[in-house]
Amino acid sequence: MAIVKKITRIVLSVVLVCIIVLNVLLVVGTFFTSIPVFGTIANMFTVCFSHQWLPYVFIVTALCIVLARAYKSRLLRIAWIVSAASLACGAIIIASAVCSVNANGGNANYFQSYTSTSYNDVTSETIQYEHSISDQSLLDIYYKDDGCSNKPVVLYIHGGGWSGGSRNEDSSYLQQFAENGYVAVAADYDLSSQDRHGAQTVEQQLTYAVAWITNHASSYGGDTNRFYIIGDSAGGNLALDIAYKINNGVYAMVTNQIENSSGETANASTEQLSEATTEVVSGETTEETTLPKVAAVSVLYPVTDMTACYSNDYPLFTNLAHKMVSDYMGATPEEDPTLYADRSPINQVTNSSPATCILVGSHDTAVSPSQSYTLQNQLENAGVDNTLISVPFANHLFDMGGTNFGAQAYMNITLDWFSNHLFS
Questions:
Q1: Is 0.85 surpassed by the pTM of this model?
Q2: Rounded to whole angstroms, how far apart are CA atoms 289 and 254?
Q3: Nearest to 354 by CA among 252, 423, 290, 251
Q4: DSSP-derived pairing of the beta strands 355-361 and 296-300
Q5: Cα–Cα distance between 52 and 250 in angstroms, integer?
Q6: Residues 6+ away with beta carbon under 8 Å from 134
Q7: Which of 16, 38, 19, 20 is nearest to 29 (CA)?
Q8: E strand or H helix at 391
C-alpha cells in the first residue's frame, strides 16, 4: 500500500510539474514572440482562450498547494510558487488587453466569456446570389422580422487564408448585428487551392453578392444607403479591397441575373465591372445594378499587403503563408507584381475610401500588424477617417470563440464606429 501511495505521489508530482513548465513557457512566449515555436503560438492560447486558460492555471496552482501540504513535498512547494507566478502574469496579460480595448470603447467584460446568448427572434435564410461563377455562391441573411424598414446593412466576408472557412463560421457576429437592428449578410466565395486561384474571380464574385444585397435588402427591411462591410484576416483583405474599389469606382456596377425564356438565370458581366452595360448575351437579358457606396468598414487583423503576407518570416508560418498566398494569387510576387499590388488594399486608398476601423493583435505572428499601420498611414495621407486599435499581447484570431473579450470588443467598437458613420 505504501508503494502505491509513493508511486501515486511521484506520478502526480511529475504531471503537475510538467503542466506548470508548459504554463511558464506559454506565459514567456506570450511576452516574447521572438522565442522559437512558443513565441509564435503561445498567445493564441493564453489570449484567445483566456477564459479557459486562467481557471485551468488556478486549479493547477490550488492542487499544488493542497498536495504540497499533504505530501510535505519541497518540489511541490516550489511548483505552486512558480504556478502562482504564472497565474499572476497571466492575469496581468489579460487585464492589460481588456483595459486597452475598453479604453477604446470595447466595453468588454471578461466574465461575460462564460455566458451564452440566444437570438431566438433573429431569422436567417440561405440564398444563392449568383450563378455564372459558381453554383456554391451562397449567402446567409440575418434579420429581425419586426416590420421595421430603413435598417443599415452589413456584409461579412469570412477569413481562412482564401482557402478555408465559410460564411457561417462567425454567425454570432451576424446574429448580434441583426439583434442591434441591422440586416446582416454573410457570403461564401470560391476557395482557392493549388489548382484554383481565386484572385482572378473572388472579388468579382463578391460584388455579385453586393448587387444581390442592393436589389433585395429592402425586402428584409434593409437600406443600402447605410451599407457596411466587415471581415477578418483574408476576409479583411477582401472587405477592404472591395470596399475601397466600390467607392473609387473600380467596382461601380454589375449585371443582374435575369430569367431567360427557358427559366434559367444568367449573371453576365462586362470586361470591366465599372463599365457594365445592359445587353443580351446568348438570348439571356442582363441589366445593370449600381453598387452602393460603402459608408464604413471594420476589419480584424487584415492582410493589407499581399507581398508582405507572402513574405512572412515567422518559422511556423513561412511555408503556410507562401502556400496560401500563392494558391490564391496563382503566382509569386516576383512572377506577377501587378496582381499582388492590385489585390493589396494599401494601393487602393483614395479620398473616397470609406471610414476604416481596424483591430489587430500587437503580437500577431500570422499577419504582421505592421501591414495595418502602413494602411493607416495611407488613410491618413488621403484624409480618410480611421482608427487602429492594437490589442496588447494578442495574436491572430484573438476573438476566437465569439464570446471572449476580443469578440465582445470588436462587436462593440464596430457598432459604435458604424453608428458614427451613417452615410457614405
A1: yes
A2: 5
A3: 423
A4: parallel
A5: 45
A6: 190, 205
A7: 38
A8: strand 386-391
CA dihedral 113, 88, 38, 392 (to 10 degrees): 60
Strands 222-232 and 296-300: parallel
Taking alpha carbons only, the member of 94, 86, 116 closest to residue 49 is 94
Q: How would you write 80-129 as a 3-class SS string?
A: HHHHHHHHHHHHHHHHHHHHHHHHCCCCCCHHHHHCCCCCCCEEEEEEEC
Q: What number of other Cβ atoms are within 10 A of residue 294's Cβ?
A: 27
Residues in the chain: 424
206 Cβ partners below 8 Å, 6+ apart?
157, 187, 189, 238, 242
- Bridge partners (DSSP) listed for residue 222: 151
pLDDT tens track for 38-60 = 888 899 889 999 999 999 999 99
Q: Are 372 and 360 in contact (CB under 8 A)?
A: yes
- The CA distance from 181 to 132, in Å, is 32
Distance of alpha carbon 286 from alpha carbon 41, whole angstroms: 50
Short-list 198, 182, 264, 260, CA closest to 235 = 198
Bridge partners (DSSP) of residue 348 are none
List the strands of the sheet with 151-157, edge to edge.
Answer: 122-128, 138-144, 183-187, 151-157, 222-232, 296-300, 355-361, 386-391
Indicate the SS3 state at residue 283: coil
pLDDT for residue 270 is more than 90: no
pLDDT, tens only, 333-357 = 999 999 999 999 999 999 999 999 9
Please enumerate in sequence order all residues whose Cβ is within 8 A of that of 3, keeping only pairs 6 or more positions apart, or say none. none
62-85 pLDDT per residue, tens: 999 999 998 888 999 999 999 999
Band (pLDDT 50/70/90 cuts) for residue 191 is: very high
Query: What does DSSP assign to residue 346?
Result: G
Beta bridge partners of 125: 141
Distance separating alpha carbons of residues 339 and 200, to the nearest angstrom:
9
In three-state secondary structure terms, 33 is coil
The DSSP code sequence of 188-240 is --PPP-SS--GGGTHHHHHHHHHHHHHHHGGGGTEEEEEEEEEEETHHHHHHH
